[in-house]
């Protein structure tokens, strides 16, 4: 969905599915500082991610905002070479991350990270080129459109189709961190995608108050071929 359409859809209430919501958030809202980390940080995800990542992996990080997730991941994987392309619709966040990256003194980390403005539902990348995709909160942002009916959110469908298009068959993994159980049916309901899905529930302490916990759903989806035919063509 194009920027103009989103603007019209959200004329009265800015929803997190709109570009304008994120421009505000990173220009003058809570995201205007050096880093705003949604849901969980790298250390809380580390064990899940390090199990998946291999030497030579090319990884896409969608809706990166000004999260340090990718930087921390590259720092941690010092014995292997990975490349992470971080994308976001918010130009301000991407510009700031590019500025930050230029100042990183560790050349290996700096050279492994790319930040660019792209809409994750409609990217310019070629098919089947990523070993892995990371999302923390972007699918959730798109779920918050005005199309409330469960399973019928076109933006979420577009996101998952795009992730499927970009991932390598069989070996491609998509880690999607969400606070929304409503996301799960989208992995099963679209005949244009075929995922092998696992959900891990990660309970963390809330920053909102002592003793309050929150459940983060880590959707771990492996990309499978659409049909047996495709499987044969691939081999
Ligand atoms: C909930 S925030 C999560 C930010 C970051 N991943 C984190 O965990 O801190 C959602 C992010 O998705 C971005 N976003 C929203 N719609 C997008 C789209 N269509 N394509 C790419 N990024 C998008 C927003 O600008 C924002 O940075």
TrEMBL record:
Which branch of life, at top level?
Eukaryota
| Taxonomic source organism | Dictyostelium discoideum (Social amoeba)
Q: Where is the Methyltransferase domain?
A: 53-171
The cross-references to SUPFAM superfamilies, in alphabetical order and at most eight, read:
S-adenosyl-L-methionine-dependent methyltransferases
Pfam name, any one: Methyltransf_31
Q: Which family, according to the similarity comment?
A: Belongs to the methyltransferase superfamily.
Q: Name one GO molecular function term.
A: methyltransferase activity
Species lineage? Eukaryota, Amoebozoa, Evosea, Eumycetozoa, Dictyostelia
Q: Which InterPro entries match?
A: Lys/N-term_MeTrsfase_sf, Methyltranfer_dom, SAM-dependent_MTases_sf
Protein's UniProt name:
Methyltransferase domain-containing protein
Q: Which residues form the signal peptide?
A: none
Instruction: Please list the GO biological process terms of this entry.
Output: methylation
UniProt KW keywords? Methyltransferase, Multifunctional enzyme, Transferase
């Amino acid at each position: 969905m194009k920027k103009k359409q989103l603007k019209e859809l959200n004329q009265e209430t800015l929803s997190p599915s709109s570009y304008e919501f994120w421009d505000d958030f990173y220009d003058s809202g809570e995201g205007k500082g050096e880093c705003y980390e949604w849901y969980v940080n790298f250390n809380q995800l580390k064990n899940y991610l390090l199990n998946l990542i291999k030497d030579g992996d090319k990884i896409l990080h969608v809706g990166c905002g000004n999260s340090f997730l990718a930087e921390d991941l590259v720092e941690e994987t010092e014995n292997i070479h990975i490349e992470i392309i971080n994308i976001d619709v918010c130009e301000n966040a991407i510009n700031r991350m590019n500025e930050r990256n230029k100042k990183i003194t560790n050349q290996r980390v700096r050279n492994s990270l790319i930040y660019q403005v792209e809409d994750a539902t409609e990217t310019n990348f070629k098919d089947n080129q990523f070993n892995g995709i990371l999302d923390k909160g972007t699918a959730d942002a798109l779920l918050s459109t005005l199309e409330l009916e469960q399973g019928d959110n076109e933006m979420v469908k577009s996101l998952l189709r795009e992730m499927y298009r970009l991932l390598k068959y069989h070996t491609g993994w998509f880690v999607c961190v969400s606070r929304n159980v409503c996301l799960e049916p989208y992995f099963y309901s679209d005949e244009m995608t075929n995922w092998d899905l696992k959900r891990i529930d990660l309970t963390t302490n809330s920053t909102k108050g002592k003793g309050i916990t929150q459940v983060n759903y880590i959707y771990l989806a492996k990309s499978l071929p659409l049909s047996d035919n495709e499987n044969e063509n691939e081999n």
